[in-house]
Amino acid sequence: MSAPSLSILIYHRVLARPDPLFPGEVDARQFQMQLRLLRRFHMPLPLDEALRRLQDGSLPPRAACITFDDGYADNAQVALPLLRRHGVHATFFIASGYLDGGAMWNDMLIDALRRASGPTLDLRQYGLACLEIGSLAQRRAAIDTLLGQLKYLPFDQRQRLAAQVARQAGVSAMAPPMLDTPQLRQLQRAGMAIGAHTVNHPILSTLAEQAAHADIANGKQQLESLLQAPVSLFAYPNGKAGRDYGPRHVDIVKRLGFTGAVATDWGVARPGEGLDLFQLPRFTPWDRGRLAFLWRLRQNRRQANPALQDGG
Fold this sequence. Notes:
single chain; globular; five-stranded parallel β-sheet; 42% helix; 312 residues
């Protein structure tokens, strides 16, 4: 029998149907296939139960948890019915500031590039490039370029540039992609766990310590107020140890009373010495085929956790 290990999967969206612009994005059919494979070859557990079993030594081999980041409306509209149909629990980490009509900067950019007309989008007046967008491949490349350029800018500058790109593209306001409060409560009533993911989804390492503390604490408080229930789990935005967050942010999370936190470094959590409940590794299962999905899970179990390796 293999040694106990916990694989934590990251999802963001589950689309109702495939998206030609992002053919690798998980859609309902693919998500359902992955749920079936997880139930057949792994033991899906609620994240809070998995953390308890990591500590008391009762974690089974090939334990797995499903998590969602950010708080997209399709989490309730598409993912939740499939989770309930297959009897699988998930934890939803919500950036509270985008509930009820908000849009994150990256979604504003993607929507602008998706709907922009013409073969090019000239953004040189904003210190960016003139981008080729005549084909789907060029639009995907332009999106990747812009996301990389803006990701680590200060929050206000990032939001402002995203809005400027949308105006330059000539697109109107996008349909709100995020959960509203009734949908958030629908997830809770269905027995799913709700975790905190800050208010504004900043890269914590770019903030002063006081600002980082406020964004983490206020996100927790806002969700607890909406749900009238404790919120005990946290996900670091972007989540790479040593780059997007560091030891001071781990300390903040502990001081605020969370019982566990997840990162985005690959690997699995194992019981025993070296277990850090506040830097749990996760990975994104982007493979579309059955065998490729299972192979990716197997390869992830062989990964070391960088957060533990470098002490971050």
